[in-house]
Amino acid sequence: MTVRTRVAPSPTGDPHVGTAYIALFNLCFARAHGGQFLLRIEDTDQTRSTPESEQAILDSLRWLGLTWDEGPDIGGDNGPYRQSERMDLYREHADQLVAAGNAFRCYRTAAELDALREARRAGGHSTALKPSDLRLADEEVAAREDRGDPYVIRLLVPEEEGVCVVRDMLRGDIELDWGMIDAQILLKSDGMPTYHLANVVDDHLMGITHVLRGEEWINSAPKHKLLYEYFKWDMPQLCHLPLLRNPDKSKLSKRKNPTSILYYERMGFLPEALINYLGRMGWSMPDEREKFTLSEMIDDFDIQRVSLGGPIFDREKLSWLNGMWLREDFDDEALADRLVDWAFNRDNLMRVLPHARQRMETLSDLAPLAGFLVSGILPLSEASFDSVKGDREAIIKVLQFALWRLEARREWTRDLIWDDMKGLADALDIKIKDLLAPLFIAIAGSSASFSVVDSMAMLGPDMSRARIRHAVEVLGGVSKKAAKRLDKEYMALGAL
């Protein structure tokens, strides 16, 4: 048997370090067994998926040194490798399940579903809806069908109590209560598949033998096992890797830790160091050394060396490891080359000079004018905002609202950022210059910089958002209570 693994990210935002972590372990497992590693794009969320996000995923993984044998950019014998291009396959397999009596059309409305869940809750049961909860009388089904009412296709799941045993490569047999498993939607009313159907169909048709994924998917494993049984397919071996965590042991999130690979690239971390650090997330080399290359990890890879304790993603530890790489693996010539490639290249200069030259009298003026564009997180303090009108709470509110608006921004251009900020200023009934004032400090560290909107366009979304989050924290942060209040105010502004 040829080992085949995959990673299947969704192109709905900045490329996530968690994606790189899962990709790394799938790649190492496949290569260690002389197998193949695939990349598949799960873009069935058509409202949030963008070609720009897909390209960022491909570029970021390649920047880290990860390569795949089949994928949307290089092709292969099992394509297409974008789910949006495989829709007929999902409909065909959903209809096959219905015809075999292993799935059913559900015409229940949203209001009816809410009432059913509330009834189960009132009866002391879980809110997992079973086929018996959802089925309508044959006459009612016929009436709704005649009216052309929308329907979804749901999975037939066991009604009775009992456990589903799922075999995991690291955890052994996992017992999961069937009572908590709902009649999962497989095909939505718009014809789009859910993750569960598309994932199983794609993994089978692409010949995936081992699925290494995050432990958040453990509770979905019974649904997947059931689908494999209904289709009479062999199920891949499952391995649920521990989730990356913040230093406070919570799930890794952008609220507490930058999660975008682009952020770490923009910060000046070496791809060799970042992939080395991700390799240490719950795994260790046989000799326990901390610094190793990707090829060394592949040579010594053993999935059984994964620890199930939640690995902590600590930026300080990453910085320390990155420093080791800089000092031990790069002479002056190599380091100079990396610096030029990273920030001091002609393309970057050509983006900066149209703004900086208006303020330059000597060549040496460029560094203080544009230094913030090749910096990481700026050394701000609360006093940095003394020149900004308004009290601390008002400044935090402006920064937080701007951050939320920019987090929703998918396309990142100067004009679109300006439209977002102007729309926010109008909604808050304040002058645009008053809204931009604290952003100047957050983004450039000074109000004397050139256009903050142009600066954000050049910095990119990951670094811009990270600096605004940092500014909010410098000013004291937002408590849970304050966050609820601000969120209510922000939502009251309506569509900006």
TrEMBL record:
Pfam families: Anticodon_2, tRNA-synt_1c. CDD domains: GluRS_core (cd00808). It comes from Candidatus Marimicrobium litorale. It catalyses: tRNA(Glu) + L-glutamate + ATP = L-glutamyl-tRNA(Glu) + AMP + diphosphate. Its EC number is 6.1.1.17. ATP binds at K254. This is Glutamate--tRNA ligase. PROSITE patterns: AA_TRNA_LIGASE_I.
